[in-house]
Amino acid sequence: MSGTFVGMPAFPKAAQEAVGNPTLRANLRHATHTIRAKRAAAVAEVSDWAALREAGKQIKDHTLRHLDRYLVQLEESVTAAGGTVHWAADADEANRIVTRLVKETGESEVVKVKSMATQEIGLNEALEAEGIRAYETDLAELIVQLGKDRPSHILVPAIHRNRGEIRDIFAAEMSEWGRPAPEGLTDTPAELAEAARLHLREKFLRARVGVSGANFMVAETGTLVVVESEGNGRMCLTLPETLISVVGIEKIVPTWRDLEVFLQTLPRSSTAERMNPYTSTWTGTTDGDGPRTFHLVLLDNGRTDTLADEVGRQALRCIRCSACLNVCPVYERAGGHAYGSVYPGPIGAILSPQLRGTGSEIDASLPYASSLCGACYEVCPVAIDIPEVLVHLRERVVQGGPVTLEGNRTVLKPAKGHAAERAAMRAARWAFARPGALRAGQRLASRTRRLHPRTLPGPGRAWSGSRDLPPVPAEPFRDWWQRTNGGDAGEGRAK
Amino acid sequence: MSSREQILGRVRRALADVPRDGAPDGPDGPKKSDGPNRSDGSHGPGQVAGYEEAVAREYLREHGERSAAQTAELLAENLADYRALVHRCTEDELPSLIGRLFADHGTRTVLAPAGLDPAWLSATDVERVEDRAESTAHELDGVDSVVTACAVAIAETGTIVLDGGPDQGRRRITLVPDHHVCVVRVPGQVVSSVPQALERLDPARPLTWISGPSATSDIELDRVEGVHGPRTLEVVLVD
């Protein structure tokens, strides 16, 4: 995956910082609770939700189990419809292909539809390095780009920003990139959207190259599907002369009919709407309508490694609706940046360590970025058992085991740093089995409470480094029970 | 080795645990496919044999039973719920209604696809701009309104679908101007559900599904209508 997030601290440290930021927490809480309630209502409207969810799961599972066949079929049908198919084994190769294709048009700027795949490979940065400017045109992506920030949510990348912050970013930064923000811009969402409309329209109308991802690719027909709300997608997909779509190989569905499942489950799960305002489908090129040249870049970048894991491969069913983020108690408090990846939240916690491997500190920490409460599994429209994969990946981190990395099977060593955890558990077992020792220890702890450090020494430091230590009470519970009336009933036994 | 071969090879190795005998999932069952089974166990081009049995489609073809009139009513309701302006009229009233919509919007120029029924614009004297392949996006940006027909409309979701037919024109004409008037024939063009709509549509054509005007929820998840597409969508249901 991209270098964008290299050097990120592990999840516990990043999350601790985020949790200490009250504005961020308030923005996130407001947003996730709003969408949570709306999604539940949108799902409750369709009586066959469980059957749609099961069908979505089965379609995706079937596709993954025969992915080679469907990739070849897709290539044939896209080519037959007038498109050109490219294969990219990793981020660098995808970036090289797109850069070359843009250069061949003679252009030095592109307009972009919001796309997780191009975020993942760091395409904007790669284009910038070659002198090509990429303009993000989704409102939230624009906010992130202008704010020199990183996205923190799959669907609403600027979810961590409130209207006041957005106003300030627009007023300060728009002139750097093109049309400045209107004088006296206020922080009402309608005015902010209008400012974005004016700023971006000049770019849409002159753009000759568009870059997109896709929500779905239909193997049978070669059709690509982009689901969006603002119309910026339609602008990028239809006004330029050249369209380049970078799409993960797992985004295939076998048949046109399969869209009937996902066009019902995706909008309701993501934006909690019956249907998103705009859905575009295109099959190759069409004479006289839309781009004259269409390139499809099929991206692996760790997906085949993920496919090789029999438990973890279900993460590739993901349709990027982001419902799991919005219900997650950990995401709600820590925010998306703490996950150190373009895929935050529960799905990010299982997808990123599989796409990138668990070699880095952040990736080894992600399977622990969960309370395992299961809410993410409940809302997932393709029934990915995220808790199951989290536990599986924890086991891999702690115990090591066979994995596939860049197509090669290898055996992972256990991660360091879990010895202290085992020692602590052994000590606890010893103390809990000896009531006298436990009582003495508790009394000692209470009497010395003013002397306690705020962090644990030695191996415990890792634990207390990202958590507030609970204060030791002035008196152990059992002493309090004895001293107060509560102790009456059990007096005989306590002595 | 090309990246294509590399990726396909990795996929095949990754699926070492999956039976590769051509059976879709689970034990062999009766197979239906677009190509006949061959004696060597492989299948012709096209999807994996037996796909139709591989997925349990126990979901509904439509949600609830409605008369044609009720379906049209639901379409109107759901369109309005997402801030489209909905009008109903008879075939005879259509030209004057369209004329009134232009007058109310202050329209001076209107884009109309080549195959549009000329009668629709017979009661208005706004200047008509042709949908020409060579006109630039900047030219379209100067046009006040666009009027089109549609391919199909979906009641349950409040969606109209354009397929680039002669009475709908190129995708960009319903995108760049700020005011879109779309005419839906009731009941002929109205279906209940997404599955029923997909059956009627040709994937080879470029399709645009429209559910209300352009909107964003990117600022504190507050829905704001009108970002990049037409900010006003008027749907006329013609009985």
UniProtKB/TrEMBL annotation, chain B:
Please list the residue ranges that the record marks as compositionally biased, kind Basic and acidic residues: 14-41
Disordered: annotated segments: 1-50
LUD domain: which residues?
73-238
Q: Which domain of life is it from?
A: Bacteria
Which protein is depicted? Answer: L-lactate dehydrogenase complex protein LldG
- The protein's organism comes out as Streptomyces achromogenes
